[in-house]
Amino acid sequence: MAPSKEEKIKGSLLGLAWGDILGCPVEGWRGHEIQTIYGDYQQLPQEYPLEKMRLVMVKKIKRLRPLGLYSDDTQQALGLINICLSQRCWSKQAWAELLVQGMAKKAWRGYGKNFSAAIRKLAKGNQPELSGSSSAGIGAAMRVAPLGAVYRDNPAVLATAVMEASLITHGHISAAAFAYAVVYTVAALIGGQTPQEIKDSLPSAVASVETEWLENHLDWTIERSVGHLVSQSIAKILTQKWNNCEQLRQQISQTAKPHLAKGFTKAHPNQGFVLLGGLHALAMALFPQDDPEFLLAEIIRQGYDTDTVAAICGGILGARFGTNWMPLERLQERERLENYAAALVDFNVAVEDIETFLAREAELSQQEANYQKKVTA
User: Fold this and answer.
1) Which residues contact 135 (CB under 8 A, 6 or more apart)?
2) Tens digit of pLDDT for each residue in 64-95?
């Protein structure tokens, strides 16, 4: 049975959260390491195989999170939803203030250096337009899928919100344009478009937004030199025929190789670059197969940035297939997450206020730190 529109809307958040949580246990691992410890990784383990890990890869233990606890991907998505719903409109200033408050109150966890660098600038008084790092990573795209649900009926606001929310932390046209590709896809799936229809329309939609930000908004200090790289790469990948997942991964790697950022020594399709992990997540979520559990697990089994790539893929899969395929009982914060998902359907559903959100996230961040201290003792 096809999922209802309501389930697709909820799926944009719950799928993101489930992908994040399913990918967390093997974040940063290589594919062969996942195979060594878990074999054919398909589901969230009931417990960590700590004894086995201590024998062959003890250094990985210090990064483990409590099973079922989400990471920064979902955490920042919840923050975005909270800002959008509490303000009743998009406000880049409110988003910037939340980012600074979250760092001051030790709410954020698992974040990368580009995120923290941007927040330091904001905390020093920099304007949001001047704070983003020149990163073409996927740290903006990981959190935005629910915006496609919030602004599903307002494409102009959707484009503005996702570009500004992204560029405040990741001041690179590629990072923001790819984040827009994610929300466009989510909104289109919620609106009833098929994966093939989205493949046909997405490149030109992204190109239009790229043009807008390449030619205008010059008060924003962002990296623009790559031009239409994201829309061109999306077109190249989505118009090719894939006979299997491995062929898709090879095509993504070949497409990204000429554009690798400094520090990337290989073009693995799950690395945290928009043309690698980003394109991989997007393409797998639109893969011509109707088994979201397989698609999500298959992307995680490749290793590298597993939680973030799976969060992006999961948010789109949720908007495509709804929520019935997700084992929601494994979500540690299930009630909170489901309440946020319900608020995406009906904007009159109340979510926690900003202070409560930050306080709870600070508690969860401390819980994660305590757990990591315990398992490495």
Assistant:
1) 114, 170, 171, 172, 175
2) 999 999 999 999 999 999 999 998 889 999 99
The helix (H) or strand (E) run that includes residue 367 is: helix 354-375
pLDDT digits (tens, 9 = 90+) for 315-328: 999 999 999 999 99
CATH code for the domain defined by 5-375: 1.10.4080.10
Distance of alpha carbon 171 from alpha carbon 175, whole angstroms: 7
Q: Which residue has the tokens 């389930």?
A: 7
Residue 260 DSSP label: P
Residue at token pair 């991989």 = 280
Query: Under a CB-based contact definition with an 8 Å cutoff, are residues 282 and 185 in contact?
Result: yes
CA distances from 90 to 70, 95, 272, 290, 310 (A): 25, 9, 27, 34, 26
Neighbours of 204 (CB within 10 A): 11
- What backbone torsions phi and psi does residue 170 show, to the nearest 5 degrees? -125, 90
Residue 264 pLDDT exceeds 80: no
Amino acid at 208: S
Question: Taking a C-beta distance cutoff of 8 angstroms, is the pair 105, 245 a contact?
Answer: no
> Which residue from 184, 111, 99, 194 is spatially nearest to 147, judged by alpha carbons?
184
pTM of the model: 0.98
Phi, psi of 137 (to 5 degrees): -80, -175
Please report the pLDDT score of residue 1 as a whole number: 81
